[in-house]
Amino acid sequence: MFEHQLFLNAVLSGLLLGGFYASVSIGLTISFGQLNIVNIAHPAFVIVGSYAAYTANSGLGLDPIVSGILFMPVFFAGGAVFYRVYHVCFEARGDDPLRGLAFFFGIMFVIEVLLIIAYGVDYRLVEAAYIGETVGYGAITLPLRMVAPFLAALILTFGIQLFLSKTFTGRAIMAVAQDQIAVQLMAINPTYIKQIAFGIAIMTASLAGALLIVIGPVEPSMGRQYIGRVFAIAVLGGMGSIPGTLVAALILGVAESLTATFYGPSWAPAVSFGLLLGALALRPQGLFGR
Amino acid sequence: MQPLLLAKSVTKRFGGFTALDHVDITVSSGERLGLIGPNGSGKTTFINCISGTLRNDSGSVFFDGADISTLPAHQRIRKGIARSFQIPKPFPTMTVRENILIPLEFGSTKSKSQDRRSPDDVLDLIGLTEKANETAAHLTQVELRKLELARAVAVDPKLLISDEAMAGLSHSEVDDILEILLSLNAGGITIIMIEHIMRAVMHFSERIVVLDAGQKIADGEPNTVAEDPRVQEAYLGN
Amino acid sequence: MKGSVFFIGACTVVLAGLALTRLGVNEYYFFAGYVVLQFVVLATAWNILGGYAGYVNFGSAGFFAIGVYCSIALTKAFSLPLPLLILASSIAAGLIGLATGYLTLRLRGVFFAIATLALAIVLETLVSNWSYVGGAAGTFVMRPKTVIFFDSYVEFLFIVMLVLAVSSVVIARTIERSRFGRGLRAIRDEEVAAESMGVPTLKLKLLATTLSGALMGAAGAPFSYYVTYVDPPSAFNLSFAVNAVAMPLIGGTATWLGPLIGALLLGSIQQIATVTISSELNLLIVGLTLIIFVIVAPDGLVGAARRISKWVRGN
């Protein structure tokens, strides 16, 4: 009976965790899966989102999730400018994946060091009314600091999916992912579309970062732990599919939660790598790829 | 006599799309075969399956009597199947001579190095001697096409597959490449030519195979094939 | 440069290093020199796969740490001498490289890069849970009390790392001029064409990954004796991974000279800078230099020097 409840609790908190993972991964699904830009610095941008929420929370007393939403336009603009630089320096010069990868690796590293210089290496946390509260039914208790990010992440995921499938710009982004020449024939500038898409990808990091610091304290190098996770989710989710990303994120969340419950939390980071390697070796087209 | 190349019921799918649907093609030793078909009919997929760049899903490929369906591409060239690429794929940081040294060193059908062609011999044969020390990134279109052929010829292949070696070239450049291919064939190399330029295919081929939507729709002498109503329909649309 | 000249040069460097230890030079220089030489090994090893074949490894710190912990475990179990530790560490790191490569190298190059990035993090997780080698708390390692010939153990370690550095440069140069090296270059330039021209691409990539991993493991083997206290964050330090990528890219990836120059230059600057400015600022400089070079001088210092000399001769 006890074992049974433990299992149920682990699965439920894994689903909550997985929902949050979807918000961290969705930006990579757009940049890597749809735009073919291997942004390994994406988790670092998420950590920037965490520190933005931290600054707004500790300085102005703003709710972290609200500030995560408020910072979205800033992140969007930053991402769009960043893409311009990337496009001029790499895409337009022809394909040398090695240099593009090294560039993002350098960016990831510089972001981390800048955060250390600005905030130090100590863990930072935010304050909000729901942090510390729980909701429960019977033997099941769920902390609100997990439930709130889960709900916010779901809204973000559905919002992005709605945008991509229903709006003209969204459809153009999906078209760019499939066939650049067709898009040019439709008289849309693919660079402009990709710029918007990359802006959106970075924009999601603002909210994801805020959710991350709601769940627990954050330090500058934390992004590294998310590299394996986000790529495992993006690959498993079928490289570019938003629903696929959500399902893959939920699977990873549950797998990690079960591992943490039954083998100890220090083993959880190894799960994503196992999943990633397994996905690459057995099914590189992902769960939802053809 | 046993055919040099025998493709039996070769099938290749990409997801739900069938690019090749049970294609049977036989090529005899010394033959000049033209392979034609509308864009997207499966010509390049077919030669990718023959040369090992892609693996066919079902059916089998026999070369010189042996089943080579499971061999990787780098072993097929050593058996004697060489190809050129439709979009030239030179090694851009290497010189023309170094570009030729790669297949000579890795892909030759001759196991002893003294039996292999010399790079200068290959350059001379294709007419690239003057460009030997030029970096491949700086070549013109026609020179790139010639380099593609030179790298394929370097290994002393039994079968040479030329994938649209003439697309986008001028009238005299096409004649230039045609002449090279004819002289290679006279030297004993079997050739499959994929081409859109009908003048060149009709002039070159002893036999023509037509693919349409992944299926073989005609196989015979150039003039008979050209008059086949199914072929005309495939080209003109329905 | 002719082979014999190069070989004599390599031997001279080792002999000069040995002579230096007899001159009573301040021990600090050996202490700092060790770190620079360690970077020479890492950068050269990285370049065998990254520079010659064009496959990016972001997990250099992971391969280095395999060497560190393999050596710690073997010391605890059997107290083997250092040369055997180096050998065992390079075999272990080489095998892990082979396994990772086998699972991912058949796919697009970027998947290999991602897998190496994740590999380092997972290895760190495993080591943190492995109490025999100290787990997350770390472990102290006792240096042997005496060492033959040398005045101090640090001098001995310096010479060991010098031999490793010279050997890796010799290995890299040998590969560069061999059939193997020409095959890797063809893979880097145009992999599909290389395969269709007879280059056994998967085999060569796996060989390069194994060799590169093995050299990184070898570089990690003496580390615990050098620092005497090792915990996972120090062995898996991201600075190893960043420098292993940055140094070849800054020096130039086409030849053995690039990573050597990059490592000597960037390594020395960091050693001087750590004394004068904070280590964070120091790493910031490395990261920014990497970004600038990738954008402005993609063929590195060696490539830039070649272009300048060509231009001067052209005028």
Please, could you describe this protein's structure?
The complex is a heterotrimer of chains A (290), B (238) and C (315). Chain A has twelve helices and two strands, in the order αααααββααααααα. Chain A is mostly helical and 290 residues long. Chain A has a single domain, classed as Orthogonal Bundle (ABC transporter involved in vitamin B12 uptake, BtuC), CATH 1.10.3470. Chain A has a two-stranded antiparallel sheet with strand order 1-2. In chain A, strand 1 and strand 2 form a beta hairpin. In chain A, helix 1 packs parallel to helix 6 and helix 1 packs antiparallel against helix 11. Chain A is globular. In chain B, strands 6-7-8-3-9-10 form a six-stranded mixed β-sheet, with helices on both faces. A four-stranded antiparallel β-sheet of chain B has the order 2-1-4-5, covered by helices on one side. In chain B, helix 3 runs parallel beside helix 5. The model of chain B has no long low-confidence stretch (mean pLDDT 89). Helix content of chain C is 77%, strand content 1%. A two-stranded antiparallel sheet of chain C has the order 1-2. In chain C, helix 3 crosses helix 12 and helix 12 packs parallel to helix 14. Chains in contact: A-C, B-C. At the B-C interface, helix 2 and helix 3 of B face helix 7 and helix 8 of C.
Provide the number of structural domains of chain C: 1
Compute the average pLDDT of chain C. Answer: 88
- Can you tell me the CATH architecture of chain C? Orthogonal Bundle
Instruction: Provide the gyration radius of chain C in Å.
Output: 19 Å
- Percent helix of chain B, as a range, is 25-40%
Assembly type of the chains comes to: heterotrimer
How many beta-strand segments of chain C?
A: 2
Average pLDDT confidence of chain B is 89
Largest sheet of chain B: 6 strands, mixed
**How many DSSP H or I helices of chain B?**
9
- Sheet-strand content of chain B, in percent, reads 15-25%
For the record, what CATH class of chain B applies?
A: Alpha Beta
The shape of chain C, in one word, is globular
Distance between the termini of chain C: 25 Å
Q: What is the CATH domain class of chain C?
A: Mainly Alpha
Question: Main sheet of chain B: which strands, in order across?
Answer: 6-7-8-3-9-10
What is the fourth-level CATH superfamily of chain B? P-loop containing nucleotide triphosphate hydrolases
Number of strands of chain B: 10
**What ranges of chain B have pLDDT less than 50 throughout 5 or more consecutive residues?**
none
Q: What order do the SSEs of chain B take from the amino end to the carboxyl end, as H and E?
A: EEEHEEHEHHHEHEHEEHH
